[in-house]
Amino acid sequence: MPADATASKPPLDDLMMAMDVVDTLRHDERIAVKELGDDLRDEQMVERLRQIYKSQGIEVPDRMLREGVQNLRQNRFVYSPPAVGFQRTLALIYVTRARWSKWLGILLLLAVAAVLAWRFLVVLPRERAAEALRIELTETLPADFAALPARIAGIATVPEATARAEELAATGLAALAANNAEAARKARADLMALEAQLLQTFDVRIVSRPGTPTGVTRIPQANRSAQNYYLIVEAIGPDGTALPREIRSEEDGKTERVDIWGQRVPKATFDAVRADKQRDGIVQDAVLGSKARGKLDIDWQKPVDAGAITTW
């Protein structure tokens, strides 16, 4: 380092002394506030400083005291915060990072959790549902509309069943072409119900047991002078159990799924069954009709009328 540069810098002791003088002036209200406020001469301030240091046993050269007074007037050794600006803002952000970084981290975690929740709880289920619907409309339902009529044709023994299956399949395919999933599903459900109906086999047997009437009569509301006759019957399957059936009551027009109902019959049929039961308390000729595999309707072995009831 050049010698002249070293010589131009004040010794460290002098610098510390100058700072102490300024600090003494700043903390001594009588000098730093009152006397400066009254615009007293610098020599009076120097004299005051000399007395203060002398009382402390410290000898300070007059040069130092005068420099201290001058430095106080020039606000030297006083910290002045930097002016507001971009660099100061960056510095404040950096020195306060311990406070705001924690909250920023929490906000980032919440944002990531929200994105993941939206993805897994909303987007993915929606995408899976859309893909499932696409497969159903383009693969599953078309295959069913081809397979079910073929199976029904192999079971049916009456042309009406085959024609009905073809009609339902055409309805389903038209719904697929219109991208109507609900209508297509209903057509498939109707085809499956038709197949199940064709596969059913049972006997319609007249009930003959204690606690349940074998037959009942009704006076219709529309014709109070007439009388309707009903035999209480069940559809008994090959295993001996009663099969539930969809029966529409002619009294209230409601369709119910029941395993016992009243089948309307002519008076002659009703009287013949009553005479059968009166002989020994049991209806010996109890089969009113039969439903064979491949057929849609019941083949009645005794005369019956159209109509049924579900309560009596």
From TrEMBL:
Instruction: Tell me the superkingdom of the source.
Output: Bacteria
Q: What Pfam families does UniProt report for this protein, alphabetically?
A: DUF6384
Q: Which UniProt keywords apply?
A: Membrane, Transmembrane, Transmembrane helix
What's the protein called, per UniProt? Uncharacterized protein
InterPro entries, sorted: DUF6384
What are the TM regions of this chain, as residue ranges?
Answer: 103-124
